[in-house]
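Field reference: sequence -> structure
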Amino acid sequence: MSDQIQFIVEKLNQEPFRKNYNLITFDSLESVQLLQLLSDVLGEIDPKHAVDIREELPEQTAKRMLTLLGILKYKPPGTISDLSAFRQGLVTGSKPIIHPVLHWLLQKTNELKKRAYLARFLVKLEVPVEFLQDDTVADINKQYEELMEAFKNLHKECEQLRTSGLSTAEIRRDISAMEEEKDQLIKRVERLKKRVETVQNHQRMLEIARQLRLEKEREESLAQQKQEQKNQLFHAEQRLQRAQLQLKEMHHAVVDSKPESLMKKLEEEINFNSYLVNEKIPRELESKKKSVYFLQKVVAEPAMGQSDLHVLDSKINEVNAQINQLIEKRMMKYEPIDSKFSMYRQQASIISRKKEAKAEELQAAKEEMSTTERQMLQKTNQAHELEGSEVLKGDEFKHYVNKLRSKNTLYKKKRMEIAEITAEYGILQRTEELLKQRHEAIQQQLQALEDKKGISGYSYTQEELERVSAIKSEMDEMKGQTLDNMSDMVKKLNAMVAEKKSSLAPVIKELRQLRQKCQELTQECDEKKIQYDSCAAGLESNRSTLEQEVKGLLEECVQEESNYRYVNCMKRNLEVQLQRAKEEMKTYVSPDPQERRKAIREQYTRMILEQENLGKKLREKQKVVRESHGPNMKQIKMWQDFEQLMECKRECFLKQQNQAAIGQVIQEGGKDRLVL
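Structure field:
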């Protein structure tokens, strides 16, 4: 604890506080001064909290400090088991409560400043659900959330830029390396130009190479277009398959169906949906709202320890026991044993539970059916992609087996042919090697003849020109083939589309009739929906007024509770002071002299007597000092004069020694001259 106080004092004596405290003065601070000091430290972290606590009520001060400590995520130490005691200690300025808070704040000042700055922009404003039903309020709330996310991203980028500083030396090295690569590429291009200029007809060959490159690029673009058209055709076939599947489902639904059965199905769906809308979903929504409210309340509270959780569990168990007792008393009072209402109510509750269970099962079954339908559609699409067919049955399977047998025999024959071809391929490969060797020998002879005649490189250029012309002719043939294939594909697609339109014409007629029926039913559904919306709006307005009243009453209750706690705290302080006064009177009136010595009054009287005796001694000492002051000053003056006299004698002695030394040197110099 002493290390903690010493750390607090050191931090408060530094910038920006500069309080000039020591351990004694800091420990002697009163509760109001401690609260003001805590407010100053919080004001350094968040400038909005730089407030004089004398200008606000104690409840406002405690609320303001608790709010900021909650934002900064302060957790009280483990010795504080009750949060109400923590709040009470914060209101009264208790040292065991405020000292740990100051130690924590001064230990993480920079980090907490950053957290308080971010809290100004990232603490979300809670908007009631009934206000979010308004479109303008919902749009503004959405914009607010988007701006909050944008601020988060910008802050992260700013922190990354601050931490990851780019090195100018690395950038310069990269630039120098790129310049060197550029110079090397320029030199390489110049060397290649010089090599090409020695070849005959190099301009024509460059033009042919450029045309070849352009044709290759055009070929790639045509291949890309072909692939895109294939993808479009594949997607169109998928859409067609889905439409056919939907058409089959509608045919199956229409077969052997009558208007009465369709109306019955629609009534069942409407009843199920109305049950969901009117009973199940509102209950779930209410439970979710309650859970969200309690979760928000839990989040607003400071962090709890294990002891707090045990206390809450014990309170919950006590409240549940009281509720059960009240229910039993109510049942005994208002519902006799021989009454039949209890039985009917039990049956009604059982039926409602069964209804809820069946509704959940129905909803789960519908979801499962939709998932299986999606999976079936995916599997059929995958089968069509792999060019597969449907599952075979009966005679079709036998025919498929016979077909596989014939294919197996054909496979064996082809395999034998492949073996013969591979053997022939080995022979041809050997002949090719021999021909290549002969070709190389002839090429060497031809090159020697060209060197003799002075036309070296003629055969090479001739072969290159023939090869380029052959490649160009092949490219032209490929272009023509691709264009023919594309035109055939377009014709086939147009024919398929015309066939599908003719086959879908009767189905479209049936769909028109069904659409008319659907429009009539949708009109009726819209009318019912309007009635439901009007009723729901009235109930919602009543609910909002009741919620506002409840909210106001809750706020009054919280205010009264805080007033009660403050008054209770003041009462406890007064009781402690009164108890101390009673004990003091008891010890002062006690006949026992030992007990009387323990009284504060006796202690203070003894201290006063000691201080008076000390004052008398100090006054006598002062009198002696005053009497001896004159002679002592004269003696000091005499010693100073004596010191000056001795200093003067020392200087004279030193001067005399210097003069004697100079005279001796002069005499020695004269003797030397006489000897010379």
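Note: Residues 590-621 form one domain.
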